TrEMBL record:
Its EC number is 2.3.2.26. It is an enzyme of class 2 (transferase). One of its GO terms (biological process) is protein polyubiquitination. The keyword Cell membrane does not apply. PROSITE patterns: HECT. It catalyses: S-ubiquitinyl-[E2 ubiquitin-conjugating enzyme]-L-cysteine + [acceptor protein]-L-lysine = [E2 ubiquitin-conjugating enzyme]-L-cysteine + N(6)-ubiquitinyl-[acceptor protein]-L-lysine. One of its GO terms (molecular function) is ubiquitin protein ligase activity. Keywords: Cytoplasm, Transferase, Ubl conjugation pathway. This is HECT-type E3 ubiquitin transferase. One of its GO terms (cellular component) is cytoplasm. It is found in: Cytoplasm.
């Protein structure tokens, strides 16, 4: 049985390799009719990692593969052998039989690797040499046997915790990780041994690795991340082996931490694994996290998980806490003669005309466990069961009032299209606390808020340190001015004529704020300008709005907090609260429901034709017109909490389409022609304005 499983896995590996070759190199047939072949007309070149991801999808779909592949030995001749200190490329072109012994010499041990590739700057040379070797199928087959002794030596040297590791085994490991050979599933045993050695080091050695890796180029870092991600994807596709996945995921974590320290980091999304996020059962992984604290699960390694997956974990954790509290309350009711029947919901009954005061009043006395219950909203003197639409309307009305500039709690920057705390707000801390609670409730109840905060708000919510660089997204013009101040070559004091104080106007009165004690009498000079910028940034982000933000954060942490919140990055917290700007209208079409129409109705066929032809800006306006927000839930338009419904609104007429944004409900007359539908729909969306939520 074991031999059959092994044979099946070998077949899968071979198929993945064939698909990868087809996508990367092609079959050599000019204008190949196979659209998945690199030799086909119009084929878009893929990176190695993207080709591997595509190969796994093609395997799952049993897609056809070209029977022959182009000879690739010519790749070696395209690489300048003067850039190869090992002489391997020259041997490949003159005496191929001498290549394996030469490779054995080069990769005999750590010292020989470092002799030929003496610094991190040698990594591109190594990558080119590996590429040339892999271009020849015959030479490439010996690679595993050649590299394994060096890998074992690297593991041995890094495992000695009696003294700090030298740079040599780290450099040797980094050089080997530039090898695209590791994208080939047949090489994964060697790669696994290397990752085990790197991921199983002592704490001090791990920190040394992180520091060393952080100084490498973005290109090198990207190549290594691609190799590790390909290993994880293929290992998962072959049938998850948790021990193998654990070592790779932990090593990916080392690279992730190094990337966080890098001066030119990769996008954090490069560390998300698409296959894991799409196929892993988050409920099972959560159960593993809770029930088996000493065993590997992906939930302990948040960098590999995307925002949607983390949001599912956060909501699952809230449900678990809520169920525990409800069970305890039910037991008290049964055995302690409690007069109050416990409710499984957080129920708010509010008056539309007094929504802020009513909400504040009803939330007083609630504890954090109440906030983790599913929210149900009822408007006073109105019928209706809250199946999502009433809740959505409640958020829409409440947030519209709280964020109204006339209310005075926030200021809106027209240039950046962002809200920020009003440092001179007269509102009580309770209102800011309420907004924090509402943001937390929005996450737990999968409501997308149509508000725009700068990223620094989410950094502060997660207790991350804010820096001068955050000013760039907060206020680009101000950031540019401060950079010019720091780089100014002339005499700062005579040209800028400033002190360590800030003046601004409030209701016609000039206010002066000192950035430090006695700041009004401290002149800004070349010598102290860095201190001035640091104090200015701290004042802007922290001290000027400390009262407002602390109340806001306090409210948020009443609802959200702990391990699962800290698993989010600031960017992901923004996505969870305010949604994604990425639009997929085909997913919206697939999930749409109809009233007195169906998918085949001529007006519906015309409708989707028009919608898919809209520009990006028009699609956002359409989304805002129908749902109240131009943002998308992190699970996508195919997973709206309140389904998108298109309802017949009478026969053909000149009336414009209308909508109920709280219920994602579009009312569409049965227009007689495509042209009329297009004109009426575009007119409707171009003349609507919305402040809403999804």
């Amino acid at each position: 049985m074991a031999s059959q499983d092994s044979h099946a896995q070998d077949n899968i590996k071979q198929r993945i390799l064939e698909y990868h070759m087809m996508l990367s190199v092609g079959c050599g047939t000019k204008d190949c009719p196979n659209v998945n072949c690199a030799s086909s007309n119009g084929f878009i070149t893929l990176s190695n990692l993207d080709a591997l991801r595509k190969a796994i999808v093609l395997l799952q779909n049993q897609a056809p593969v070209c029977l022959t592949h182009a000879a690739t030995s010519t790749i070696a001749s395209d690489i300048n052998d003067e850039c190869d200190p090992t002489g391997v490329i020259a041997l490949m072109l003159s005496n191929k039989d001498a290549v394996p012994p030469r490779l054995s010499e080069v990769f005999e041990n750590v010292s020989t690797i470092c002799e030929y590739f003496p610094s991190r700057d040698s990594s591109q040379m190594a990558a080119n040499m590996f590429k040339a070797i892999l271009a020849d199928d015959i030479v490439g087959t010996v690679f595993s046997d050649v590299l394994l002794p060096a890998v074992e030596r690297i593991r041995l040297e890094l495992s000695d915790s009696s003294e700090p590791p030298s740079e040599k085994p780290i450099l040797a490991a980094w050089i080997l990780l530039q090898n695209d050979f590791f994208l080939d599933p047949t090489s994964h045993n060697v790669l696994k041994q290397l990752m085990i050695g790197l991921a199983s080091t002592s704490v001090s050695t791990r920190q040394t690795l992180i520091s060393w890796f952080a100084s490498n180029s973005q290109e090198d870092m990207s190549r290594v991340v691609g190799i590790v991600q390909s290993y994880i994807s293929v290992t998962w596709a072959l049938g998850p082996r948790l021990s193998d996945l654990a070592h790779a995921t932990k090593f990916l974590g080392i690279i992730y931490e190094a990337n966080e320290l890098s001066t030119s980091p990769l996008p954090y999304t490069e560390f998300h694994n698409d296959l894991i996020n799409s196929e892993l059962d988050y409920r099972q992984d959560f159960a593993m996290f809770v029930q088996r604290p000493n065993e590997f699960c992906f939930s302990r390694h948040a960098y590999i998980l995307d925002a949607a997956f983390k949001s599912n974990l956060l909501q699952l954790d809230a449900s678990l806490q809520m169920r525990t509290q409800f069970d305890e309350a039910a037991m008290r009711f049964m055995f302690q003669s409690s007069s109050q029947v416990p409710s499984p919901f957080l129920v708010l009954e509010v008056n539309r005309d007094n929504i802020v005061a009513d909400t504040l009043l009803q939330l007083q006395g609630k504890n954090s466990n109440d906030f983790k219950k599913p929210l149900k909203v009822k408007f006073v003197n109105e019928e209706g069961v809250d199946e999502g639409g009433v809740q959505k309307e409640f958020f829409q009305l409440l947030m519209r009032q709280l964020f109204n500039p006339a209310y005075g709690m926030f200021v809106f920057d027209e240039d950046c299209q962002m809200f920020w705390f009003n440092k001179d707000s007269f509102e009580s801390k309770l209102e800011f606390e309420l907004i924090g609670i509402m943001l937390g409730l929005a996450i737990y109840n999968s409501v997308i808020l149509d508000i725009r905060f700068p990223l620094v708000v989410y950094k502060k919510l997660l207790n991350h340190t804010v820096k001068f660089s955050d000013m760039k997204t907060f206020n680009p013009a101000l950031h540019k001015g401060l950079v010019q101040l720091l780089q100014f070559d002339g005499d700062v004091e005579s040209v800028f004529t400033r002190t360590f104080s800030i003046e601004y106007s409030l209701f016609g009165e000039v206010k002066n704020v000192e950035l430090c004690p006695g700041g009004s009498s401290i002149a800004l000079t070349n010598q102290n300008r860095q201190e001035y910028v640091d104090l200015f940034v701290d004042y802007t982000f922290n001290s000027s709005v400390a009262t407002q933000f602390h109340a806001f954060q306090s409210g948020f942490e009443m609802v959200c907090g702990g391990f699962w919140l800290q698993a989010f990055r600031p960017e992901e917290l923004d996505l969870s609260i305010c949604g994604s700007p990425v639009l997929d209208f085909y997913a919206l079409e697939a999930a749409a429901k109809y009233e007195n129409y169906n998918r085949s109705s001529p007006v519906i066929v015309n409708f989707w034709k028009v919608v898919h032809e809209l520009s990006e800006e028009e699609k956002r306006k359409f989304l805002s017109f129908c749902t109240g927000s131009d943002r998308v839930p992190i699970n996508g338009l195919g997973n709206l909490k309140v389904p998108f419904i298109i309802a017949r609104n009478g026969p053909d007429s000149d009336r414009l389409p209308t909508s109920h944004t709280c219920f994602n409900h579009l009312l569409l007359p049965e227009y007689s022609t495509l042209e009329k539908l297009r004109e009426r729909l575009i007119t409707a969306i171009q003349n609507s304005e919305g402040f809403g939520l999804m």
